[in-house]
Design goal:
- This protein has 206 residues and is mainly beta.
- It has one domain: hypothetical protein yedk fold, CATH 3.90.1680.10.
- It is built from three helices and 14 strands.
- The strands form two sheets. The chain has a five-stranded antiparallel β-sheet with strand order 3-1-8-9-14. Strands 4-5-11-10-7 form a five-stranded mixed beta barrel.
- The protein is globular, with a radius of gyration of 16 Å.
- GO terms for molecular function: lyase activity; peptidase activity; single-stranded DNA binding.
- Its EC number is 3.4.-.-.
- This is Abasic site processing protein.
- Keywords: Covalent protein-DNA linkage, DNA damage, DNA-binding, Hydrolase, Lyase, Protease.
Length: 206
């Protein structure tokens, strides 16, 4: 799965890496972002691919009365994304989640009491890259506030990630530049699952 990312991105980094401006409040991010805190992270939406905005991690489906379920929607499994109530309305509402990397822990014993922490990136000379996400714009009926929230889509792990994430064998949908536009263009979502698409990743112990 994917619950911790490096999202310390300056406006210039977003512009240089993704060719878009950033439209939102001041944002510096952090090199260790915990999804369970429902942080704001820069994302690019399919209906406005020329700018980045802040999205809140943990999708809130259209029917939700409040934000209580966000801790359960940090990730969306690509195999069942069209079946789950929280995600099926957003299958074709795609976004790019902008990061420098993400973290995963390898279990060194059967019960996970000893673990090794890895930092994983797209193999692209240490530049920011995108994770595939889905999103929804949710309206709080009590306050009228609108919130753009997202989930990171996960797939079966490739060889490298299966070695690291050696319990559940999952990985986030890592998108290189050649496939980002296709993700936003609503191509059939299963086309992006492993092994149909297999990004080249690098990892190091941290």
């Amino acid at each position: 799965m994917c619950y911790y990312v490096d999202a310390k991105l300056a406006k210039k980094q977003i512009k240089d890496a993704f060719g878009v401006g950033y439209n939102g409040p001041d944002y510096e991010g952090s090199s260790f972002v915990n999804g369970f805190a429902h942080p704001n992270i820069p994302i690019i939406l399919d209906d406005n691919p020329d700018e980045a905005i802040l999205g809140n991690w943990g999708i809130i489906p259209p029917w939700a009365k409040n934000r209580d379920g966000q801790k359960m929607t940090l990730n969306a499994r690509i195999e069942t994304i069209g079946e789950k109530a929280s995600f099926k309305a957003s299958v074709n509402k795609r976004c790019l989640v902008l990061v420098n990397g993400f973290y995963e822990w390898k279990w060194l014993d059967a019960k996970g009491k000893e673990k090794e922490k890895f930092y994983i990136q797209l193999d692209n000379d240490d530049k920011p890259f995108a994770l595939g996400g889905i999103y929804n714009v949710w309206t709080d009926k009590e306050t009228g506030e609108q919130l753009t929230s997202f989930s990171i889509v996960t797939t079966e792990a490739n060889e490298l990630m299966a070695e690291i994430h050696n319990t559940k064998h999952r990985m986030p949908m890592v998108l290189d530049k050649t496939i980002q536009e296709a993700w936003l263009d609503d191509r059939k979502i299963q086309d992006f699952s492993f092994p149909h698409y297999n990004p080249k990743l690098v990892a190091k112990v941290v």
